[in-house]
Automatic annotation (TrEMBL):
<dbReference type="GO" id="GO:0016757">
    <property type="term" value="F:glycosyltransferase activity"/>
</dbReference>
<dbReference type="InterPro" id="IPR001173">
    <property type="entry name" value="Glyco_trans_2-like"/>
</dbReference>
<keyword id="KW-0808">Transferase</keyword>
<dbReference type="Pfam" id="PF00535">
    <property type="entry name" value="Glycos_transf_2"/>
</dbReference>
<keyword id="KW-0328">Glycosyltransferase</keyword>
<dbReference type="InterPro" id="IPR029044">
    <property type="entry name" value="Nucleotide-diphossugar_trans"/>
</dbReference>
<protein>
    <submittedName>
        <fullName>Uncharacterized protein</fullName>
    </submittedName>
</protein>
């Protein structure tokens, strides 16, 4: 895998009703040089299967399944796998606007900022 510009880390725990909107919003970004890391934190509601289905459809998506350890542990697991120059987090019950990654990356590069909010 080539090194992506951005790693998007999504901790996933029992967010099946929201997960499709979340993942579709990432995959529909106007900036496409990213990896999407889904950290399934022991979901019991079908979220795990949704994660696997997205990984099977798009090679930018990687999934790790782990026993439930909480949000911070899931984010840390994603950080250990991240290959991107930049890292962002997105909760499984939230979504990005279509240009979120493009604007954040452009802002970071133009300003030299370490953090873009």
């Amino acid at each position: 895998m080539n090194t992506p510009a951005i790693s998007v880390i999504v901790p996933v725990y029992n967010v099946a009703p929201y997960l499709t909107q979340c993942l579709d919003s990432v995959l529909a970004q106007t900036f496409g040089d990213f990896e999407l890391l889904l950290v399934d934190d022991g979901s019991t509601d079908g979220s795990s299967a949704l994660c696997d289905a997205y990984a099977a459809r798009d090679d930018r998506v990687r999934v790790v399944h782990q026993p439930n350890a909480g949000l911070s542990a899931a984010r840390n697991a994603g950080l250990k796998l991240a290959l991107g120059e930049f890292i962002t987090f997105l909760d499984g019950d939230d979504w990005f606007d279509a240009a979120t990654l493009a604007v954040a990356r452009q802002t970071a590069l133009a300003s030299g900022a370490d953090v873009v909010l």
